[in-house]
Amino acid sequence: MQKNKSKLGYLMDLFRVKGIDMANYLHVDDSLISKWRTGKRRLTPDNQVLDAIVNFFIALDSSVEYQNILSILRTAYPSVNIDVSDEKLKILFKKWLLEEEKKNYFLSKRINNRNVNITQNVLYKGEDGRQKAALDIVDLMLESPYQEELMIMDYDRFS
Q1: Which of 19, 108, 140, 159 has the smallest number of Cβ neighbours within 10 A?
Q2: In a structure prediction context, what are the per-residue pLDDT tens digits for the chain, which is 159 residues long?
Q3: Separation of alpha carbons 18 and 9, rounded Å
Q4: Dihedral of CA 39/103/48/89: which sign?
Q5: What is the full DSSP assignment across 26-59?
Q6: What are the distances in angstroms from CA 60 to CA 20, 64, 125, 143?
Q7: Comparing C-alpha atoms, which of 24, 77, 10, 31 is closest to residue 52?
Q8: Where are the domains positioned within the chain?
Q9: What is the structure's pLDDT at 12?
């Protein structure tokens, strides 16, 4: 998910839903949709339109046998067996929509295989990128409570 975008924003992009169209469907102001979309305002469990939002996206995804929603839910809840006809789909989808996104969602999921190493890479480009990389590395090392192993690779095709 992109930075500064909520799960609702992710879904709206995924299903190509415009804010004004969703606002008309839900009978709310489009500025409220915009705030939900950007994460400036959070959806809450007691929100009156939450069920309508869930049903809206489930209806949109029904034409492809719920492939998009099932993919999201199977990634978020790998240990849960989800059946399309099950009420669990709506319950889990609502739960997913309301849960706060973890800092790095996919890397936070535990992979139970000792032959798998999870790595995260950041690529800096240009002279400004080199300077930013050096500053970021120093910041990370200073903030870390652990003794970290660090590997630095620098490639300049002109040298």
Answers
A1: 159
A2: 444 478 999 999 989 999 999 999 999 999 999 999 998 999 999 988 999 999 999 999 988 888 889 888 888 887 888 877 768 888 899 999 998 865 544 444 555 555 555 566 677 777 888 888 888 888 877 877 777 777 777 666 665
A3: 10
A4: positive
A5: HTS-HHHHHHHHHTSS---TT-TTHHHHHHHHHH
A6: 16, 8, 40, 44
A7: 24
A8: 7-108, 121-159
A9: 93
Q: How far apart are CA 66 and CA 54, in angstroms?
A: 12
Instruction: Report d(CA 78, CA 71) in Å as an integer.
Output: 10
**Six token digits for residue 57:** 């996206």
pLDDT at residue 96, as a whole number: 92
Which of 68, 73, 79, 127 lies closest to 95 in space, CA to CA?
A: 73
User: What is the C-alpha to C-alpha distance for residues 8 and 49, in angstroms, rounded to an integer?
Assistant: 13
Tell me which residue has tokens 């409570």.
145
Helix segments in the chain, DSSP class H: 7-14, 19-26, 30-38, 50-61, 67-76, 88-98, 105-108, 126-143
The predicted pLDDT at position 86 comes to 66
Q: Which two tokens stand for residue 118?
A: 């999870």
